[in-house]
């Protein structure tokens, strides 16, 4: 399997650290030094579905295929505009692809889960061209009175088109339970069951998540190297989930990788959950920095606690 097209879409509204300091007790200095984030985008006039469709169209165009050539659409989102139908079904309708659709949720690791599932569908001959759209709107489930979480996230969509090829790719996924990161849903009471009326904003114990992130990323990448027989020196780029500059730097140092192989864009967008890797990939692609045959190592982590890594040829 290989990636043949990328696309992304961002909300228009830019929210800087200084603007945030008018909402919660924080400062540009704290946010920059603890996370590396300077600004993020948040949805205001547009909907997530609008942006998902825009990114989907761009990735199909960049792949040089028609919507009718897409034979599976997978979306990843933690929180969609509608509980049902799925976002993938909405994109299918607007694109006119007329193919099977499904939404996945593996938190911030979602893009790597989607690639792994796409690879499996291709290996069983069930699909040839798959559109993957990672669309996230954390601004709708963080508590805007809690400085510990609301400063970290941003809304965005990243999309890719993958196609069947002889190029090998390899993915490794894992989940280990933690209560350090979760978000409850706001269900309604029924005549038979009362819902727990607990706070349904994102809950996070930052330090625990930080430790698990660094440990899992390093472990996952080492496992991928071992199983695929690829060495670090053969890799063109390490594309990691853009959560925190300090997490990325800790992994980079542990893996002993040069700075220029570890691209980052979280200063502009914050943590955009599963959208962060395809968004970064699209930026590199547009800047002409990806060349056919380049080996890309991907690694991400998120609530669950899910984590995953993989290697794929560009
Ligand atoms: O996709 C996965 C999502 N999650 C993550 O990737 C998060 C991983 N964790 C982290 O990135 C870091 O733990 C944080 C950036 C969330 C926090 O950094 P930290 O160095 O672990 O800080 P801390 O939580 O230990 O808090 C240190 C201090 C506390 O004050 P006291 O108790 O020392 O007086 C916090 O109340 O910083 C305070 N603080 C803030 N101050 C200003 C926490 N958030 C803020 C804030 N502005 N936004």
Any overview of this molecule?
This protein has ten helices and 13 strands. It is of the alpha/beta class and 314 residues long. A hairpin with a 3-residue loop joins strand 12 (295-302) and strand 13 (306-313). The strands form four sheets. The protein has a five-stranded mixed beta sheet, sandwiched between helices. The model has no long low-confidence stretch (mean pLDDT 95). It is globular, with a radius of gyration of 19 Å. It binds oxa(dethia)-CoA. Oxa(dethia)-CoA binds at residues 26, 30-31, 34-35, 108, 147-148, 151, 204, 206-207, 209-210, 213, 243-244, 271, 302.
Keywords:
binds oxa(dethia)-CoA; 314 residues; 13 strands; five-stranded mixed beta sheet; four-stranded mixed beta sheet
Give a short overview.
This protein is α/β, with parallel strands linked by helices. The protein has ten helices and 13 strands.
Largest sheet: 5 strands, mixed
Small molecules held by this entry = oxa(dethia)-CoA
Question: What fraction of residues sit in β-strands?
Answer: 15-25%
Number of helices: 10
Helices, strands, pairings?
Elements: E1 2-9, E2 13-16, H1 17-20, H2 28-35, E3 39-42, H3 48-63, E4 72-76, H4 87-95, E5 101-104, H5 110-123, E6 129-136, H6 147-150, E7 156-163, E8 170-175, E9 181-182, E10 203-204, H7 206-228, E11 237-240, H8 245-255, H9 266-269, H10 276-286, E12 295-302, E13 306-313
Parallel strand pairs: 4-5, 4-6, 11-12
Antiparallel strand pairs: 1-7, 2-3, 6-7, 8-13, 9-10, 12-13
Helix pairs in contact: 3-4, 7-8
The protein binds oxa(dethia)-CoA.
Residues 26, 30-31, 34-35, 108, 147-148, 151, 204, 206-207, 209-210, 213, 243-244, 271, 302 line the site of oxa(dethia)-CoA.
């Amino acid at each position: 399997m290989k990636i043949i097209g990328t696309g992304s879409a961002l909300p228009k509204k830019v929210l800087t650290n200084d603007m945030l300091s008018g909402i919660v007790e924080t400062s540009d200095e704290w946010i920059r030094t603890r996370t590396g984030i300077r600004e993020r985008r948040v949805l205001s006039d547009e909907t997530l579905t609008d942006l998902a469709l825009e990114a989907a169209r761009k990735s199909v165009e960049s792949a040089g295929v028609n919507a009718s050539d897409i034979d599976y659409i997978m979306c990843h989102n933690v929180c969609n505009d509608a509980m049902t139908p799925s976002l993938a079904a909405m994109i299918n309708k607007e694109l006119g692809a007329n193919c099977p659709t499904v939404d996945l949720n593996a938190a911030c690791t979602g893009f790597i889960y989607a690639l792994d599932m796409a690879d499996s569908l291709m290996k069983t001959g069930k699909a040839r061209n798959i559109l993957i759209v990672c669309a996230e709107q954390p601004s709708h489930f963080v508590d805007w009175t809690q400085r510990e979480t609301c400063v970290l996230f941003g809304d965005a969509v990243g999309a890719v088109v993958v196609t069947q090829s002889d190029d090998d790719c390899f993915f490794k996924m894992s989940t280990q339970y933690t209560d350090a990161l979760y978000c409850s849903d706001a269900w309604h009471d029924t005549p038979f069951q009362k819902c727990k009326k607990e706070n349904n904003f994102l809950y996070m114990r930052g330090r625990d998540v930080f430790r698990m992130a660094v440990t899992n990323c390093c472990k996952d990448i080492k496992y991928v190297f071992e199983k695929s027989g690829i060495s670090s020196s053969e890799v063109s780029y390490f594309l990691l989930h853009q959560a925190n500059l300090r997490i990325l730097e800790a992994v980079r140092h542990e893996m002993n990788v040069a700075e220029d192989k570890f691209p980052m864009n979280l200063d502009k967008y914050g943590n955009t959950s599963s959208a962060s890797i395809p968004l970064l990939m699209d930026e590199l692609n547009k800047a002409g920095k990806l060349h056919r045959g380049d080996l890309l190592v991907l690694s991400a982590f998120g609530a669950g606690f899910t984590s995953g890594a993989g290697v794929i040829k560009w």
